UniProtKB/TrEMBL annotation, chain A:
It holds the Pfam family Med8. This is Mediator of RNA polymerase II transcription subunit 8. The keyword Repeat does not apply. Its main location: nucleus. GO terms for biological process: regulation of transcription by RNA polymerase II. The lineage of its organism: Eukaryota, Fungi, Dikarya, Ascomycota, Saccharomycotina. It comes from Lachancea nothofagi CBS 11611. GO terms for cellular component: core mediator complex; mediator complex. Component of the Mediator complex, a coactivator involved in the regulated transcription of nearly all RNA polymerase II-dependent genes. Mediator functions as a bridge to convey information from gene-specific regulatory proteins to the basal RNA polymerase II transcription machinery. Mediator is recruited to promoters by direct interactions with regulatory proteins and serves as a scaffold for the assembly of a functional preinitiation complex with RNA polymerase II and the general transcription factors. It is found in: Nucleus. Component of the Mediator complex. Keywords: Activator, Nucleus, Transcription, Transcription regulation.
From TrEMBL, chain B:
It comes from the Eukaryota. The lineage of its organism: Eukaryota, Fungi, Dikarya, Ascomycota, Saccharomycotina. Belongs to the Mediator complex subunit 18 family. Component of the Mediator complex. One of its GO terms (molecular function) is transcription coregulator activity. This is Mediator of RNA polymerase II transcription subunit 18. GO terms for cellular component: core mediator complex; mediator complex. Keywords: Activator, Nucleus, Transcription, Transcription regulation. Its main location: nucleus.
Length: 217, 269
Protein backbone atom coordinates (compact mmCIF):
# COMPACT_ATOMS: atom_id res chain seq x y z
CA UNK A 1 0.00 0.00 0.00
CA UNK A 2 2.94 2.32 -0.35
CA UNK A 3 4.53 3.48 -3.47
CA UNK A 4 7.43 5.58 -4.50
CA UNK A 5 6.35 8.95 -5.97
CA UNK A 6 3.02 8.79 -7.76
CA UNK A 7 4.39 10.08 -11.06
CA UNK A 8 5.36 6.65 -12.34
CA UNK A 9 2.14 4.99 -11.17
CA UNK A 10 -0.59 4.43 -13.69
CA UNK A 11 -3.16 7.16 -13.87
CA UNK A 12 -5.87 4.57 -13.46
CA UNK A 13 -5.24 2.98 -10.09
CA UNK A 14 -4.38 -0.73 -10.51
CA UNK A 15 -7.41 -2.78 -9.79
CA UNK A 16 -5.73 -5.97 -8.65
CA UNK A 17 -2.77 -6.70 -6.42
CA UNK A 18 -0.88 -8.63 -9.07
CA UNK A 19 -0.58 -5.61 -11.30
CA UNK A 20 0.98 -3.48 -8.63
CA UNK A 21 4.74 -3.00 -8.86
CA UNK A 22 6.27 -3.30 -5.40
CA UNK A 23 9.77 -2.52 -6.64
CA UNK A 24 9.45 1.12 -5.80
CA UNK A 25 8.52 0.58 -2.20
CA UNK A 26 11.51 1.85 -0.13
CA UNK A 27 11.55 -1.39 1.78
CA UNK A 28 15.15 -1.11 2.95
CA UNK A 29 14.66 2.32 4.46
CA UNK A 30 11.38 1.45 6.10
CA UNK A 31 12.75 -1.77 7.48
CA UNK A 32 15.81 -0.05 8.95
CA UNK A 33 13.63 2.53 10.67
CA UNK A 34 11.18 -0.15 11.81
CA UNK A 35 13.97 -2.19 13.41
CA UNK A 36 15.30 0.79 15.34
CA UNK A 37 11.83 1.73 16.52
CA UNK A 38 11.13 -1.82 17.60
CA UNK A 39 14.25 -1.81 19.78
CA UNK A 40 13.42 1.57 21.24
CA UNK A 41 9.80 0.73 22.07
CA UNK A 42 10.95 -2.52 23.62
CA UNK A 43 13.45 -0.72 25.86
CA UNK A 44 10.97 1.97 26.81
CA UNK A 45 8.32 -0.58 27.64
CA UNK A 46 10.79 -2.48 29.80
CA UNK A 47 11.81 0.66 31.67
CA UNK A 48 8.20 1.68 32.19
CA UNK A 49 7.42 -1.78 33.46
CA UNK A 50 10.29 -1.73 35.95
CA UNK A 51 9.42 1.73 37.20
CA UNK A 52 5.86 0.72 37.96
CA UNK A 53 6.94 -2.17 40.17
CA UNK A 54 6.72 -1.93 43.95
CA UNK A 55 10.46 -2.24 44.58
CA UNK A 56 12.56 -0.01 42.40
CA UNK A 57 15.58 -1.43 40.60
CA UNK A 58 19.09 -0.29 41.60
CA UNK A 59 20.08 3.16 40.39
CA UNK A 60 22.95 1.85 38.31
CA UNK A 61 20.70 -0.57 36.42
CA UNK A 62 18.31 2.31 35.70
CA UNK A 63 21.17 4.46 34.57
CA UNK A 64 22.43 1.72 32.28
CA UNK A 65 18.98 1.34 30.76
CA UNK A 66 18.59 5.05 30.23
CA UNK A 67 21.93 5.23 28.49
CA UNK A 68 20.91 2.30 26.25
CA UNK A 69 17.66 4.11 25.41
CA UNK A 70 19.56 7.29 24.61
CA UNK A 71 21.83 5.35 22.27
CA UNK A 72 18.83 3.79 20.56
CA UNK A 73 17.16 7.18 20.24
CA UNK A 74 20.32 8.49 18.68
CA UNK A 75 20.31 5.54 16.31
CA UNK A 76 16.69 6.21 15.29
CA UNK A 77 17.42 9.85 14.53
CA UNK A 78 20.53 9.05 12.51
CA UNK A 79 18.68 6.39 10.53
CA UNK A 80 15.76 8.71 9.78
CA UNK A 81 18.19 11.45 8.89
CA UNK A 82 20.04 9.08 6.56
CA UNK A 83 16.87 8.18 4.62
CA UNK A 84 15.36 11.66 4.97
CA UNK A 85 15.23 12.45 1.28
CA UNK A 86 13.71 9.12 0.28
CA UNK A 87 11.14 9.05 3.04
CA UNK A 88 10.20 12.68 2.49
CA UNK A 89 9.42 12.10 -1.16
CA UNK A 90 7.39 8.97 -0.50
CA UNK A 91 3.64 9.36 -0.66
CA UNK A 92 1.42 6.78 0.93
CA UNK A 93 -2.04 5.88 -0.32
CA UNK A 94 -4.31 2.85 -0.04
CA UNK A 95 -4.67 0.51 -3.00
CA UNK A 96 -8.05 0.22 -4.60
CA UNK A 97 -8.51 -3.37 -3.44
CA UNK A 98 -7.97 -2.52 0.21
CA UNK A 99 -11.12 -3.07 2.24
CA UNK A 100 -11.34 0.54 3.33
CA UNK A 101 -14.78 0.30 4.93
CA UNK A 102 -14.01 -2.80 6.94
CA UNK A 103 -10.69 -1.51 8.28
CA UNK A 104 -11.39 2.18 8.54
CA UNK A 105 -9.89 2.49 12.00
CA UNK A 106 -6.63 0.83 10.97
CA UNK A 107 -6.43 2.88 7.80
CA UNK A 108 -6.88 6.24 9.54
CA UNK A 109 -4.25 5.29 12.13
CA UNK A 110 -1.77 4.27 9.45
CA UNK A 111 -2.34 7.28 7.27
CA UNK A 112 -2.44 9.85 10.04
CA UNK A 113 0.11 12.61 9.57
CA UNK A 114 -0.81 14.88 12.43
CA UNK A 115 0.49 14.19 15.89
CA UNK A 116 -1.95 12.47 18.16
CA UNK A 117 -3.21 14.74 20.98
CA UNK A 118 -1.01 13.03 23.60
CA UNK A 119 2.13 13.69 21.55
CA UNK A 120 1.11 17.32 21.17
CA UNK A 121 0.70 17.54 24.91
CA UNK A 122 4.20 16.07 25.46
CA UNK A 123 5.75 18.53 23.05
CA UNK A 124 4.01 21.48 24.68
CA UNK A 125 4.99 20.23 28.08
CA UNK A 126 8.65 19.99 27.01
CA UNK A 127 8.54 23.50 25.57
CA UNK A 128 7.08 24.89 28.75
CA UNK A 129 9.69 23.12 30.87
CA UNK A 130 12.49 24.71 28.87
CA UNK A 131 11.07 28.08 29.80
CA UNK A 132 11.58 29.65 26.39
CA UNK A 133 8.65 31.20 24.57
CA UNK A 134 9.18 29.90 21.05
CA UNK A 135 6.77 32.47 19.63
CA UNK A 136 8.91 35.39 20.68
CA UNK A 137 12.39 33.86 20.49
CA UNK A 138 14.09 33.89 17.13
CA UNK A 139 15.56 30.64 15.79
CA UNK A 140 19.08 32.06 16.14
CA UNK A 141 18.50 32.73 19.82
CA UNK A 142 17.16 29.24 20.30
CA UNK A 143 20.27 27.87 18.61
CA UNK A 144 22.43 30.02 20.82
CA UNK A 145 20.64 28.79 23.92
CA UNK A 146 21.04 25.20 22.83
CA UNK A 147 24.70 25.74 22.19
CA UNK A 148 25.34 27.35 25.56
CA UNK A 149 23.43 24.51 27.17
CA UNK A 150 25.69 22.04 25.40
CA UNK A 151 28.74 23.96 26.51
CA UNK A 152 27.67 23.95 30.13
CA UNK A 153 27.05 20.21 29.93
CA UNK A 154 30.45 19.67 28.37
CA UNK A 155 32.15 21.81 31.00
CA UNK A 156 30.38 20.03 33.84
CA UNK A 157 31.33 16.65 32.45
CA UNK A 158 34.96 17.69 32.01
CA UNK A 159 35.09 19.20 35.47
CA UNK A 160 33.64 16.08 37.04
CA UNK A 161 36.14 13.91 35.20
CA UNK A 162 39.06 16.09 36.26
CA UNK A 163 37.98 16.21 39.89
CA UNK A 164 37.44 12.47 39.91
CA UNK A 165 40.92 11.89 38.56
CA UNK A 166 42.43 14.01 41.34
CA UNK A 167 41.56 11.53 44.04
CA UNK A 168 42.21 7.90 44.71
CA UNK A 169 38.89 6.27 45.63
CA UNK A 170 39.89 2.66 46.04
CA UNK A 171 42.15 0.59 48.20
CA UNK A 172 42.44 2.97 51.14
CA UNK A 173 41.21 1.56 54.44
CA UNK A 174 41.13 2.86 57.98
CA UNK A 175 42.83 0.92 60.74
CA UNK A 176 39.43 0.00 62.10
CA UNK A 177 38.28 -1.41 58.78
CA UNK A 178 41.45 -3.43 58.53
CA UNK A 179 41.11 -4.84 62.03
CA UNK A 180 37.47 -5.74 61.41
CA UNK A 181 38.17 -7.54 58.17
CA UNK A 182 41.87 -8.44 57.84
CA UNK A 183 41.38 -9.93 54.37
CA UNK A 184 41.17 -6.35 53.02
CA UNK A 185 44.93 -6.07 53.35
CA UNK A 186 45.50 -9.20 51.29
CA UNK A 187 44.92 -7.65 47.92
CA UNK A 188 45.99 -4.26 46.79
CA UNK A 189 43.20 -2.31 45.15
CA UNK A 190 44.89 1.03 45.41
CA UNK A 191 45.00 3.03 42.19
CA UNK A 192 46.89 6.28 42.45
CA UNK A 193 44.95 9.28 41.22
CA UNK A 194 45.69 10.05 37.61
CA UNK A 195 45.19 13.77 38.12
CA UNK A 196 47.15 16.16 36.00
CA UNK A 197 47.29 18.52 38.94
CA UNK A 198 51.07 18.58 39.02
CA UNK A 199 53.12 21.70 39.66
CA UNK A 200 54.28 23.61 36.63
CA UNK A 201 57.85 24.77 36.30
CA UNK A 202 57.64 28.54 36.17
CA UNK A 203 61.34 29.02 35.44
CA UNK A 204 64.36 27.10 34.25
CA UNK A 205 66.18 25.66 37.25
CA UNK A 206 69.58 25.71 35.59
CA UNK A 207 69.26 29.43 34.85
CA UNK A 208 68.51 30.17 38.49
CA UNK A 209 71.40 28.01 39.65
CA UNK A 210 73.67 29.78 37.22
CA UNK A 211 72.73 33.17 38.66
CA UNK A 212 73.27 31.83 42.19
CA UNK A 213 76.70 30.42 41.37
CA UNK A 214 77.99 32.88 38.82
CA UNK A 215 76.09 36.07 39.40
CA UNK A 216 73.73 37.99 37.09
CA UNK A 217 74.81 37.81 33.46
CA UNK B 1 85.13 19.09 53.18
CA UNK B 2 81.66 17.79 52.55
CA UNK B 3 80.28 16.10 49.52
CA UNK B 4 76.84 17.32 48.63
CA UNK B 5 74.62 14.99 46.62
CA UNK B 6 71.66 16.84 45.16
CA UNK B 7 68.71 16.83 42.80
CA UNK B 8 66.70 19.88 41.79
CA UNK B 9 63.32 20.86 40.41
CA UNK B 10 60.84 23.72 40.57
CA UNK B 11 57.19 24.24 41.46
CA UNK B 12 54.83 27.14 40.80
CA UNK B 13 53.34 29.43 43.43
CA UNK B 14 49.87 27.88 43.16
CA UNK B 15 51.21 24.46 44.10
CA UNK B 16 53.01 25.67 47.21
CA UNK B 17 50.20 24.94 49.70
CA UNK B 18 49.55 21.43 48.48
CA UNK B 19 53.25 20.75 48.10
CA UNK B 20 54.16 21.79 51.64
CA UNK B 21 51.36 19.73 53.17
CA UNK B 22 52.29 16.75 51.00
CA UNK B 23 55.95 16.95 52.02
CA UNK B 24 54.97 17.57 55.62
CA UNK B 25 52.97 14.36 55.67
CA UNK B 26 55.65 12.47 53.78
CA UNK B 27 58.42 13.50 56.14
CA UNK B 28 56.37 13.48 59.30
CA UNK B 29 57.96 16.77 60.28
CA UNK B 30 56.71 20.32 60.00
CA UNK B 31 58.57 22.63 57.61
CA UNK B 32 61.33 24.80 59.02
CA UNK B 33 61.42 28.38 57.83
CA UNK B 34 64.84 29.75 56.96
CA UNK B 35 66.42 32.77 55.40
CA UNK B 36 70.01 33.28 54.33
CA UNK B 37 71.88 36.21 53.06
CA UNK B 38 74.70 35.26 50.74
CA UNK B 39 77.50 37.43 49.45
CA UNK B 40 79.72 36.05 46.73
CA UNK B 41 83.27 37.35 46.58
CA UNK B 42 85.79 37.14 43.81
CA UNK B 43 89.56 37.67 43.66
CA UNK B 44 90.28 41.36 43.39
CA UNK B 45 90.49 42.04 39.62
CA UNK B 46 92.96 44.88 40.18
CA UNK B 47 95.53 42.31 41.17
CA UNK B 48 97.44 40.76 38.35
CA UNK B 49 96.92 37.14 39.26
CA UNK B 50 99.12 34.64 37.49
CA UNK B 51 97.18 32.19 35.34
CA UNK B 52 99.69 29.41 35.90
CA UNK B 53 101.87 28.39 38.79
CA UNK B 54 105.56 27.59 38.83
CA UNK B 55 104.91 24.07 37.51
CA UNK B 56 102.99 25.59 34.61
CA UNK B 57 99.69 24.27 35.98
CA UNK B 58 96.58 26.32 35.44
CA UNK B 59 95.32 28.30 38.40
CA UNK B 60 91.57 28.43 38.62
CA UNK B 61 90.11 31.47 40.28
CA UNK B 62 87.09 30.58 42.30
CA UNK B 63 84.46 32.64 44.03
CA UNK B 64 84.07 32.56 47.78
CA UNK B 65 80.64 32.20 49.28
CA UNK B 66 79.91 34.12 52.44
CA UNK B 67 76.67 33.17 54.05
CA UNK B 68 74.76 34.28 57.10
CA UNK B 69 71.38 33.67 58.56
CA UNK B 70 69.00 36.62 58.44
CA UNK B 71 67.02 36.88 61.68
CA UNK B 72 63.42 36.07 60.81
CA UNK B 73 62.13 38.84 63.05
CA UNK B 74 63.50 41.24 60.45
CA UNK B 75 60.93 39.83 58.02
CA UNK B 76 57.99 39.22 60.33
CA UNK B 77 58.04 40.88 63.74
CA UNK B 78 55.01 38.91 64.89
CA UNK B 79 56.35 35.54 65.97
CA UNK B 80 52.97 33.83 65.80
CA UNK B 81 52.69 34.57 62.10
CA UNK B 82 56.15 33.29 61.37
CA UNK B 83 55.39 30.02 59.62
CA UNK B 84 55.63 28.58 56.11
CA UNK B 85 52.48 30.49 55.03
CA UNK B 86 54.52 33.64 55.28
CA UNK B 87 56.35 32.81 52.06
CA UNK B 88 53.16 33.29 50.06
CA UNK B 89 53.46 37.03 50.67
CA UNK B 90 56.71 37.20 48.75
CA UNK B 91 55.88 36.67 45.10
CA UNK B 92 57.32 39.91 43.78
CA UNK B 93 60.66 41.61 43.38
CA UNK B 94 59.92 43.62 46.48
CA UNK B 95 60.62 42.16 49.89
CA UNK B 96 57.81 43.87 51.73
CA UNK B 97 58.60 44.77 55.28
CA UNK B 98 62.25 43.91 54.94
CA UNK B 99 64.83 46.60 55.19
CA UNK B 100 67.69 45.85 52.80
CA UNK B 101 69.89 48.12 54.88
CA UNK B 102 70.13 45.26 57.36
CA UNK B 103 72.21 43.15 54.99
CA UNK B 104 74.43 46.11 54.17
CA UNK B 105 75.00 46.60 57.88
CA UNK B 106 75.81 42.92 58.21
CA UNK B 107 78.48 43.18 55.53
CA UNK B 108 80.03 46.50 56.28
CA UNK B 109 79.28 47.00 59.94
CA UNK B 110 76.50 49.13 61.23
CA UNK B 111 76.36 52.74 60.10
CA UNK B 112 74.00 53.52 62.91
CA UNK B 113 76.03 55.42 65.48
CA UNK B 114 74.05 53.98 68.37
CA UNK B 115 74.92 50.46 67.33
CA UNK B 116 78.59 51.12 66.70
CA UNK B 117 79.37 49.64 70.07
CA UNK B 118 82.00 47.10 69.11
CA UNK B 119 81.34 44.62 71.88
CA UNK B 120 77.69 44.27 71.01
CA UNK B 121 78.24 43.99 67.29
CA UNK B 122 80.66 41.15 67.78
CA UNK B 123 78.06 38.93 69.43
CA UNK B 124 76.51 37.68 66.18
CA UNK B 125 79.30 38.43 63.80
CA UNK B 126 79.89 34.88 62.63
CA UNK B 127 79.78 34.04 58.94
CA UNK B 128 79.95 30.80 57.02
CA UNK B 129 82.67 30.87 54.43
CA UNK B 130 82.56 28.18 51.77
CA UNK B 131 84.08 27.35 48.45
CA UNK B 132 82.53 24.85 46.08
CA UNK B 133 84.02 22.83 43.27
CA UNK B 134 82.21 22.26 39.99
CA UNK B 135 80.02 19.14 40.35
CA UNK B 136 81.66 15.90 39.23
CA UNK B 137 81.47 15.08 35.54
CA UNK B 138 80.20 11.89 33.97
CA UNK B 139 77.16 11.01 31.93
CA UNK B 140 75.97 8.03 33.96
CA UNK B 141 75.56 9.87 37.23
CA UNK B 142 72.27 9.53 39.04
CA UNK B 143 72.69 12.56 41.31
CA UNK B 144 74.76 15.72 41.20
CA UNK B 145 77.88 15.43 43.36
CA UNK B 146 79.62 18.57 44.48
CA UNK B 147 82.40 18.93 47.01
CA UNK B 148 82.20 21.95 49.27
CA UNK B 149 84.80 23.20 51.69
CA UNK B 150 83.31 25.17 54.50
CA UNK B 151 84.41 27.01 57.57
CA UNK B 152 83.02 29.47 60.04
CA UNK B 153 84.42 32.90 60.69
CA UNK B 154 83.55 33.70 64.27
CA UNK B 155 85.00 37.14 64.38
CA UNK B 156 87.11 39.33 62.22
CA UNK B 157 89.78 41.51 63.70
CA UNK B 158 92.21 43.78 61.94
CA UNK B 159 92.08 47.46 61.33
CA UNK B 160 88.38 47.42 60.44
CA UNK B 161 86.04 44.92 62.03
CA UNK B 162 83.70 44.43 59.04
CA UNK B 163 83.76 41.08 57.28
CA UNK B 164 84.22 42.69 53.87
CA UNK B 165 87.25 44.62 55.09
CA UNK B 166 88.57 41.42 56.62
CA UNK B 167 88.30 39.42 53.41
CA UNK B 168 89.61 42.23 51.26
CA UNK B 169 92.83 41.83 53.14
CA UNK B 170 92.94 38.33 51.64
CA UNK B 171 92.43 39.79 48.18
CA UNK B 172 88.72 39.13 47.76
CA UNK B 173 86.15 41.77 46.86
CA UNK B 174 82.33 41.57 46.73
CA UNK B 175 80.90 40.28 43.44
CA UNK B 176 77.14 39.95 43.91
CA UNK B 177 74.67 39.27 46.70
CA UNK B 178 71.44 37.41 47.13
CA UNK B 179 68.85 36.58 49.74
CA UNK B 180 67.21 33.17 50.05
CA UNK B 181 63.89 32.64 51.79
CA UNK B 182 62.44 29.21 52.07
CA UNK B 183 61.30 26.20 53.98
CA UNK B 184 63.29 23.11 54.69
CA UNK B 185 61.97 19.61 55.24
CA UNK B 186 63.87 17.00 57.12
CA UNK B 187 63.02 13.87 55.15
CA UNK B 188 63.99 10.35 56.15
CA UNK B 189 67.55 9.02 55.87
CA UNK B 190 69.15 12.44 56.34
CA UNK B 191 67.76 13.81 53.09
CA UNK B 192 66.86 17.47 53.21
CA UNK B 193 64.42 19.10 50.87
CA UNK B 194 64.30 22.84 50.42
CA UNK B 195 61.69 24.99 48.72
CA UNK B 196 63.12 28.43 48.28
CA UNK B 197 62.82 31.78 46.62
CA UNK B 198 65.91 33.76 45.68
CA UNK B 199 66.31 37.52 45.35
CA UNK B 200 69.33 39.17 43.83
CA UNK B 201 70.26 42.29 45.72
CA UNK B 202 71.86 45.05 43.73
CA UNK B 203 72.26 48.67 44.63
CA UNK B 204 69.64 48.65 47.36
CA UNK B 205 67.07 46.93 45.13
CA UNK B 206 65.89 43.36 45.14
CA UNK B 207 64.99 41.31 42.10
CA UNK B 208 63.43 37.89 42.40
CA UNK B 209 64.96 35.29 40.10
CA UNK B 210 62.51 32.58 41.04
CA UNK B 211 59.46 34.58 40.05
CA UNK B 212 56.25 32.55 39.84
CA UNK B 213 57.54 29.65 41.83
CA UNK B 214 59.98 27.97 44.13
CA UNK B 215 63.28 26.28 43.59
CA UNK B 216 63.20 22.72 44.90
CA UNK B 217 66.43 21.15 46.04
CA UNK B 218 66.81 17.77 47.66
CA UNK B 219 70.23 17.03 49.07
CA UNK B 220 72.32 14.80 51.29
CA UNK B 221 75.57 15.95 52.84
CA UNK B 222 78.26 13.31 53.20
CA UNK B 223 81.00 14.39 55.55
CA UNK B 224 83.88 12.62 53.85
CA UNK B 225 84.37 12.36 50.13
CA UNK B 226 86.12 9.02 50.55
CA UNK B 227 83.31 7.42 52.50
CA UNK B 228 81.92 5.32 49.64
CA UNK B 229 79.44 3.54 51.85
CA UNK B 230 77.82 6.78 53.00
CA UNK B 231 77.85 8.15 49.46
CA UNK B 232 76.04 5.08 48.16
CA UNK B 233 73.63 5.24 51.04
CA UNK B 234 72.91 8.92 50.40
CA UNK B 235 72.55 8.37 46.66
CA UNK B 236 70.03 5.60 47.25
CA UNK B 237 68.10 7.73 49.73
CA UNK B 238 67.90 10.54 47.17
CA UNK B 239 66.88 8.18 44.39
CA UNK B 240 64.15 6.75 46.60
CA UNK B 241 62.82 10.22 47.24
CA UNK B 242 62.99 10.95 43.51
CA UNK B 243 60.99 7.80 42.84
CA UNK B 244 58.48 8.61 45.55
CA UNK B 245 57.87 12.11 44.23
CA UNK B 246 57.98 11.18 40.54
CA UNK B 247 54.90 12.35 38.70
CA UNK B 248 54.48 15.16 41.19
CA UNK B 249 57.83 16.84 41.50
CA UNK B 250 60.29 15.46 38.99
CA UNK B 251 63.68 15.88 40.59
CA UNK B 252 66.50 16.01 38.08
CA UNK B 253 70.26 16.45 38.01
CA UNK B 254 71.15 20.09 37.45
CA UNK B 255 73.51 21.06 34.66
CA UNK B 256 76.95 20.93 36.25
CA UNK B 257 78.07 24.01 34.36
CA UNK B 258 75.34 26.07 36.01
CA UNK B 259 76.79 25.17 39.41
CA UNK B 260 80.30 26.22 38.52
CA UNK B 261 81.39 29.17 40.61
CA UNK B 262 84.77 29.65 38.95
CA UNK B 263 85.42 32.95 37.24
CA UNK B 264 84.21 33.01 33.63
CA UNK B 265 87.31 34.58 32.19
CA UNK B 266 89.14 31.28 32.45
CA UNK B 267 88.52 28.76 29.75
CA UNK B 268 86.41 25.83 30.88
CA UNK B 269 88.15 22.52 31.17
Amino acid sequence: MSQRSPSDADVGVPSSRDEFNFQHVPAQALDAVRMRFAQLTHSLAKLKDEMSRADLPQWYSLQAQVSVILTQLQSVTTTIHHFEELLDSTVVYPLANFPTTAHEGLLTTLLRKKNIPETDAWINDAKETVGIDLNTTSPEDVNKLLKSDEQVTKWALGFLKEEHSNYAFQGLHTAQELSNSPQLANYDEYRPSTGKNVPKKPFDVDTVLKVVHQGPA
Amino acid sequence: MVLQLSLVSAIDDESYDLCTSTLCNLSGNPPVLFSHFTAMLKPNPTFDIEQTNSKNQLIEQNRLKLCKEVPLDQLEPDGSKRDYEMLKNYQDDKLDGFNLQVVEDMLHGSTDLDRMDVDEAKSDDSWILSIADIPAAGSNRKVSTQSITENTILSSGGSSPSIIAFLSEFGYVPDYQFLTLGVKFNMNHSVYLELSKVWLIQGGESKQITKGGFLVKAFVNVTKGTDIKSINHGTNALLNLQKELSGYIDLTIPDRKSMDSRLENLSDI
